[in-house]
Amino acid sequence: MTPSRTRTFHWTLCLVLALLAIRPIALVDRLFAIALAPTRVLAELAGPIGWLQSRRVLAAGPGDDVVRAEVARHHALEQAVLDSALPSPGYLPAGARAVHAEVIGRRRDDLDTIEIRVEDMAGLRAGLPVVSGDCFVGLTEVLPDPGDPRYRHGLATVRLITARDSRIGALSSDESSGAATCQMVVGALAPRADALHLDVHNPADRSVQSGEVVVYEPEGLREGLAYIANGFLLGDLVLEPVYPIGPRGEPIVEERFAKSVLGVRPRLDYATGLYQVLVLTPDAGAAGPARQREDVLEDGLWTLARMPLRGEPSPWREGRKLGIGTRHGVRAGAALASGARLVGRVLRSGPVAADVALLADPGFSVLAIAMVETGGEPTAHVLGRLRGLGRARDGTLRFEWPATLPLAGAGEVRAEIWTGSGERGVPRGLLIGASALPRGAGPHVLHVSPPDAGAEPARIAVRLGAGERGS
Amino acid sequence: MTRARWISWLMLAVWASWLTAAQSVLVAKTFLGAWVPDVGLLFVVVCASRFETRDVPRAALLLGVVRSAYTVESPAAVLAGFLAASLVVHGVRTYADVAGPLARAALAASLVVLFDAWLVVAESLRGGADAGRGASGVGAALLGASPSFAAGAIATAIVGIAFGGALTHLPGLTPLRRPRW
């Protein structure tokens, strides 16, 4: 090749690589991972540097009593999280049975369908209402046959009320008097880009613009089983001006463009805050406290992870290379933990190595729940998805909290932050740290103090087979 | 390719590997952090200024592969950045002497800023493509990481002036080096 052609070839190669970097293709990423697998040898060559470092890290690890205390708190939190699915007294109709289930993931191609792991599949069928606490969530979809392996693992899917084709009868009531004000149909998302509100269809009285909205499927129209969830909350009826979104993604706040949209502001974070749910069946039986599941720390789905070198050449990243990969069962998204602490998550996994983002890595993302200290027993508050903004100068971890479900009141409240459910590979109840949670509407930036001042623990375990048995 | 050149390529990978490992440890575990020089990129600049023309892109890709063994950045982004840096230095080399310490330091400092910015932009644009990461705005991401760009560039320039020339004289690299007339 002539020098000119060679130069053109190299610049073209450069351009192709740049495009693959910003618009990744899964297959090409996998090929990169396979092609670069032998480079693990290079990291092993740097072993002497790693040996010096690991002695130093080991010295900074937490003591056994600290780990035991955290595991004990993890168990207490786990029960509180499981019980958070239970509705208030009086919500569950007589003769109905509530089956506990945990949200384990969401379909990548359909965010309006969640995947759940049910405690007891007996008697479950398609079209059963699913609730979380006092709120309505959606309806079960087609369930697997008893011969299907997914049946044995209790895996099912739920079509959320936010789905384009979801509809349910509803009734609004005056919040002060409790009197019914209007029947309507609720389902799918209201046409607004600035907030996630449920859409209202065919209201019987168009003058009604506020009130609490609950499920109301008249018993005479028993086409399905959704009537079992009658009385469960959908949210608050609101009529708000909605402005069109400009080319830069900002709403154009001008009265002439404003359009009033009637919607239901949900009291659940359907996007990222669904962790524990109940499936309601018409079979008799009462809803008891959720059965304690197998301890996620002792369920055999963890393996000790080796890091050839605890470092990262880019100063704004906090990432690590893991000495095991897909051949050992490590999948992308899997959690890394030390005792009951969350340490990081696997970004990408190759055959014999994996890339890991630690908690302080900018962009790190996890579903979280807070145990809020209000004087008495700590209470659980669903935070939804936290997104990492990196480490602050004082060593705390900065996270963006959208506060879709804000804490009522003003000021701040102390809380311990733990992982929630609903994400493959990240089990519930791993400690992230402590923080002061701002009350009121978000978004907020949280400064989270990691346990042990964020020292990297010596023994780190990685969750295996992310998603194969749920979380 | 002669046996001596094969060994030379291997030695280049080994030296780059050790230097990148040392850089990783210093960045992660010392208070210096952002002030650690980007020796991997400095190596690219030095190789592009002293290696035979045909070997420059190969050396850049090899150094990119070595860096990918230590970083969680997307391998495609690292390879694209290193290859582009080598082509820029090689382009400049046809008009000016880039083997001198000052020119080398200036080029290395500029390329560190551009390379770091490229990695941040690429990571932002990848968005939530990687598991466990959320999408973030390019501007916010650049603003957050930019203080470390300047520190890294200054440190790389200083090391480039002091030790840049020594990098191509590391044991085993002679067959790849272009003789000076």
Structure explained in plain terms:
- The complex is a heterodimer of chains A (471) and B (181).
- Chain A is an alpha+beta fold and 471 residues long.
- Chain A has 2 domains: 22-94 and 292-471, no CATH class; 96-284, Thrombin, subunit H (Beta Barrel).
- Chain A is built from 6 helices and 24 strands.
- In chain A, a hairpin with a 5-residue loop joins strand 19 and strand 20 (397-401).
- Chain A starts with a helix and ends in an 8-residue tail after the last strand.
- The model of chain A is unreliable at 56-60 and 467-471 (pLDDT under 50).
- Chain B is mainly alpha-helical and 181 residues long.
- Chain B has one domain: Arp2/3 complex 21 kDa subunit ARPC3 (Orthogonal Bundle).
- In chain B, 70% of the residues lie in helices and 0% in strands.
- Chain B is built from 6 helices and no strands.
- Chain B has helices at 3-29, 39-50, 56-68, 75-93, 101-126, 138-167.
- In chain B, helix 2 packs antiparallel against helix 3 (56-68) and helix 2 crosses helix 5 (101-126).
- The longest helix of chain B has 30 residues, at 138-167.
- Chain B starts with a helix and ends in a 14-residue tail after the last helix.
- In chain B, 52% of the residues are buried.
- Chains A and B meet through helix 1, helix 3, helix 4, strand 14 and strand 16 of A and helix 1, helix 3, helix 4, helix 5 and helix 6 of B.
